[in-house]
Amino acid sequence: MRDLANRCFLEAPGAEFNADCIEQGTLPLVFLWGDSTAAALYPGLKEAEAASGSFRLARFSAPGCAPILDSGANARCDEVHRTAFGLLQSAHPDVVLLHAMWGTNNDLGKLHETIARLRASKVRRIVILGPLPVWKRTLPHTLVNHYRIWHEIPERIAAGVSGLDNDQRMEAFSKAEGIEYISAWHTLCNAAGCLTGIGTDANQVLITDIVHLSDAGSKFLIRAIGKELLPSPPRP
After folding, report:
1. CATH hierarchy code of domain 4-133+162-189+216-229
2. What pTM, to 2 d.p., does this model score?
3. Are strands 29-34 and 161-162 parallel, antiparallel or unpaired?
4. Residues 32-53, buried b or exposed e (16+ Cβ, 10 A)?
5. Element (H, E) at 134
6. Where are the domains of the chain?
7. Model confidence over 50-79: pLDDT tens digits?
């Protein structure tokens, strides 16, 4: 059986949303739902799952499709999210993690309705993970240009990266909805700029293009937010 990383991300060949996208068992279920940036969280979540033994995963992600029901903006997104939501209702997840690029084109009115439907489905915790930093010319390209000029690989870069406005917008929305919000921006960025990589290895870039986490970046982010996001390990 193919891993969830491939079969439940609709950009992968032969992928489809079905019950196989939900790991079976009795542990608390974390239901990851979102677009391709949500798909990139999977390596970090799988690492945390293996390390803690405290939860199991469901994973539903489709490129270009924020986890918003019946948005009316894209018929394909509406169709696949209706399928995902039907499976969510039957799975009774303990945590629903919503993640996307969360740009200004997302309909927050429709997201409000989606959250209302999640509540009506008795979801215990609804968590929005805010948008990742967006690099204007891709992070690898930005690093190459910086190295050409300064002959160093910086830990952080402040120029050519954006996302704080959308982070603040989604945080305010989450507060108004009364749901949990985790800021990816403030986890990865500060006044000195946004992190570029993991440690001193130039090959371990945090983001592979303008916005998608690398495997190393995914693991770094989930380690950083895991205590806030994930079910606690069982007591001995």
Report:
1. 3.40.50.1110
2. 0.94
3. unpaired
4. bbbbbbbbbbbbbbbbbbeeee
5. strand 134-135
6. 4-133+162-189+216-229
7. 999 999 999 999 999 999 999 998 999 999
